[in-house]
Structures are given as structure tokens and as C-alpha cells.
Write a structure and sequence with these properties.
This protein has helices at residues 8-14, 52-67, 80-90, 100-107, 117-132, 152-158, 163-167, 180-184, 189-195, 216-225, 239-243, 267-272, 276-286, 289-300, 306-316, and strands at 2-4, 26-28, 43-49, 71-78, 95-99, 134-136, 146-151, 176-178, 211-213, 231-235, 246-248, 261-266. It is α/β, with parallel strands linked by helices.
């Protein structure tokens, strides 16, 4: 049975300064195996961004920390990145899942590409702790970054496993589907082609006629069909990657910035409740690209409720009972 932990009106009145409201304010009752309660007496506010993966991570966290004895307010599903981020900066929310690439580029306006995920996390961790007293815990084992995918038949037919393999193909086979935003990004499509030595709008690189710009959601189905493109821009943890049996190509020249999923906790809160470190670390250790594809797909493709998916996964992983 689910329980309501933050009514919408209460959330709205409490957080009018940043406009943060709860998506549903519900998650499942559970307990840790053996009934231990390392967070007994703790009062915590969990928030998240509004897209599927953010909400799922928030529901997993709310369910697990409540099972550990905390009194948790669920404010998952904040509209846009700014609402949840600002709530945490204001002290109105305690725990938020973030991405190292987001912290580096969006929050600190950095343009340096740091390909090593651990190094990027350390740089973000240090500046966030110094400037905002936010602790970015060690990242989980998933990376929700940009990538290019292709259908399994095309991967086999063209014998491609990496973007360098794509660069070695004949020009007519270098066909791409991308959305407008990725096409125009300073760290997006055209700089990526340059990194791999296949410049855009060049007869020996990628002629403009080889690139189809379309809505991001259509890119997945077009790539799966192999028409009008062999290669499409995808997000590595999107549920459609698994559902459509796409092959994610290796970014072997490390162009794309890592977007490692990371639990972020207000410094004052984690100082007060140090048990949060091992508890959130347990969640992080269990997550992977493949698992996030599966969980995201259960929501986006199968239509399941994120709170149900979060609880089912925690039970299947034997993290709660």
C-alpha cells in the first residue's frame, strides 16, 4: 500500500519561493531486511527533476530511506532542472539525483571536456562542496550521456561497434538522424564529427544531405528502421534503446562528456545523518546503464507508475522487504 507523504498544497505553500511542487507525493511502505532503522528519527525531503529517470531515482531513494526509518517528504517531479536545484540550494530539499555533466556545464559554465568519469566527478564534487556545501556522493554505475545508436542488423551488416568504425565507412553509409538541439550544441553533432575526422557538409565527410533533423522521439524509431538514417543520437539509459534492440556505439575517442548519476545531499543534512552515505552508496552500487534502460522502459513504454517500478526493483534486488 502506498502512503501520501507530501500533499500538493502543503508542498506548494512550503516552497513558493522556488515554485517546487510534488508530482504525486507517494511511494510504497517498505522496511530494510531484518528491520534495521539506521535513519530512525531523521526527517528528509527528497526531490527530483521531472523526467522519467529523475522521478524513478527519487522514488527509489524516498522508498529506501523511509524503509531505513526516515520520515521522508516526497517532492519528486519538480518541473525543469532549476526548480529542484534551487530548492536544494535554498535548503527546502535535502536529496537530489544529479548528473556530473550537468553540474560541470550547466551549473558551473565549464567548457573543458573531461572524459574520465571519476576525474569529472571529483572536480564537480570539490567545487560544489566549496561553493554550496552540497556533497556529491560517489557516482552510480550508469552514465546517461549522449551517444549514437544503430539497429542490430545494421551493426552486423556494416560491422560497426564504435564511432571510429563509422568514420571508416563509405560516405553513402554515413547517414545520421539528430534533433535540432543536438545539431546546434557547441558540444554536439558537428564538433563530434570533427573529432572523428568526418567534417560536416564535406563531400568526403558527412554531406548535409546525409543528415536528417527530426524530433528527438522520432530518432529512435527511425534508427531502428534504418531509414532515413543508419545512425541516430540516443541517450544511453533511455528505455527505447533496449526496447528497439539498438546497439550503442562506443565513443572511443571520448568526445562526449560523462553524465554519471550522482546522489547529492546538503552538507548540513549528511553531517547530521552520516548513515546516508552507505545507504545511498548501496543504491548507487546496484545501478547500471542496462538497469536504467529497463526501469525507464517500464515507465515510458509499458506505462507503469514510477513508484511501483521503484518498489518492485528494490524488492527484487533484496534491498527492502
Amino acid at each position: 500500500m502506498k502512503r501520501a507523504v507530501a500533499a500538493l498544497l502543503v508542498a506548494a505553500s512550503m516552497l513558493t519561493g522556488c515554485g517546487l511542487v510534488s508530482s504525486s507525493g507517494t511511494f510504497h511502505d517498505a522496511r530494510l531486511p531484518g528491520g534495521e532503522q539506521p535513519l530512525a528519527g531523521a526527517k528528509l525531503v527528497v526531490t527530483s527533476k521531472s523526467f522519467t529517470e529523475g522521478v524513478l531515482l527519487g522514488k527509489i531513494t524516498a522508498t529506501y530511506l523511509a524503509a531505513a526509518g526516515a520520515d521522508v517528504k516526497d517532492l519528486t517531479g519538480a518541473p525543469g532542472s532549476a526548480s529542484s536545484r534551487q530548492a536544494q540550494l535554498n535548503g527546502d530539499a535535502d536529496i537530489l539525483w544529479e548528473y556530473t555533466g550537468t553540474g560541470w556545464v550547466n551549473y558551473h559554465n565549464q567548457t573543458e571536456i573531461i572524459a574520465d568519469p571519476t576525474q569529472l566527478w571529483q572536480r564537480v564534487h570539490d567545487v560544489e562542496l566549496r561553493d554550496h556545501h552540497l556533497e556529491w556522493l560517489p557516482p552510480a554505475n550508469f552514465n546517461d550521456t549522449y551517444a549514437f545508436g544503430t539497429s542490430t542488423p545494421n551493426a552486423q551488416r556494416l560491422q560497426v561497434k564504435s564511432l571510429s568504425d563509422v568514420a571508416a565507412l563509405p560516405v553513402p553509409d554515413r547517414t545520421f538522424c539528430v534533433d535540432d538541439e543536438f545539431f546546434s550544441r557547441s558540444d554536439g553533432f558537428i564538433p563530434m564529427l570533427q573529432q572523428y575526422g568526418i567534417p560536416y557538409n564535406d563531400p568526403n565527410g558527412v554531406p548535409s544531405g546525409n543528415v536528417t533533423r527530426m524530433d528527438a522521439g522520432v530518432v529512435y524509431t527511425a534508427t531502428a528502421k534504418g531509414a532515413p538514417c543508419h545512425f541516430g543520437m540516443v541517450y544511453t539509459t533511455d528505455g527505447r534503446v533496449k526496447n528497439l534492440d539498438l546497439v550503442v556505439l562506443d565513443d572511443d575517442k571520448k568526445f562526449f562528456l560523462p553524465y554519471s548519476g550522482t546522489a547529492v545531499v546538503r552538507g548540513a543534512v549528511i553531517d547530521r545523518y552520516p548513515a546516508l552515505r552507505p545507504l545511498l552508496g548501496t543504491i548507487s552500487e546496484h545501478l547500471s546503464d542496462e538497469l536504467m534502460q529497463e526501469l525507464n522502459g517500464r515507465v515510458d513504454i509499458d506505462g507503469e507508475d514510477p513508484a511501483d517500478v521503484a518498489y518492485d526493483w528494490l524488492k527484487s534486488a533484496k534491498l527492502v522487504e
